[in-house]
Amino acid sequence: METNGGILLIEIRLSIGYDEYEEGARMSDLIEKLASSPDGAKLSILTIGDWGQAYENSPDSFVETLIKHKDSFPNLKKIFIGDMGFEECEVSWINQTNLAPLLEAFPELQSLTIKGSQDLSLQPLVHGKLEELVIICGGLPKSVIEEITSARLPKLKKLELYLGVDNYGFDGGVEDILPLLNGDLFPNLKYLGLKDSEIQDEIAIAAADAPILDQLDTLDLSYGTLSDEGGQALLASERIKKLKHLNLSYHYMSDELLLRWKQSGLSVDVTDQQEADEEDWRYPFLTE
Length: 288
What we know:
This protein is an alpha/beta fold. It has helices spanning about 20, 25-35, 40, 60-70, 100-105, 140-150, 175, 200-205, 230-235, 255-260; strands spanning about 5, 5-10, 10-15, 45-50, 80, 110-115, 130-135, 160-165, 190-195, 220, 245, 270. The longest helix is centred in the N-terminal third of the chain and has 9 residues, at about 25-35.
């Protein structure tokens, strides 16, 4: 376990089940209890699972509590809001809120992971030390993408976005993704994930010769509807060859193209090949 100045740092996950919530348990109370315990000063990673009927309740109350007690968590470096499975709440039903105040409250934070995009906002998205931002959802609203492309995150090394489908919140297009590919936004970015998209071919074609590839170690276009159209554009790119790794897992590429990838000599993941249905529909990995 990580240490800081001789303090043994710990990871804690808080979650409230359906029955517990019905009996009066609240996430705010759990955070209050944690803040008043010796574990608060040792906390390095905080994971928030189901806060109780997340399909109806926003995280507002416990986010306010966490911010209120920010001084009780001096070593907090990583936060995950919404770590829950489909049996607790479908990803497309998870209510979120504006989580930017968390970033302001914790200036030493290095990683923020969010699951769910219903009513999600990150405004203003400004932080001097954040190195990792991950958003897992069935559909990422254009408004959130715009907040990210307007962000000031000078230390960001990893950006992982599940883009999803229009039925569950994605209301943008490839033109909204282009600012993330020009290489001007995040000078220290090494990993870019534009995943789980119903327009994965369009994104792949746009990314194939994007300036951002010159600084990345890893490009992750997994979990989407990538077919030979996008795969061939990537395979033909000279810039793609500069990457240390390309993740295309969960895809709809043909056997013939997979063979060409395997013969390319590149570090590329093309596992989990999918087949379109009888009407030639292709589906991303995570939607509802």
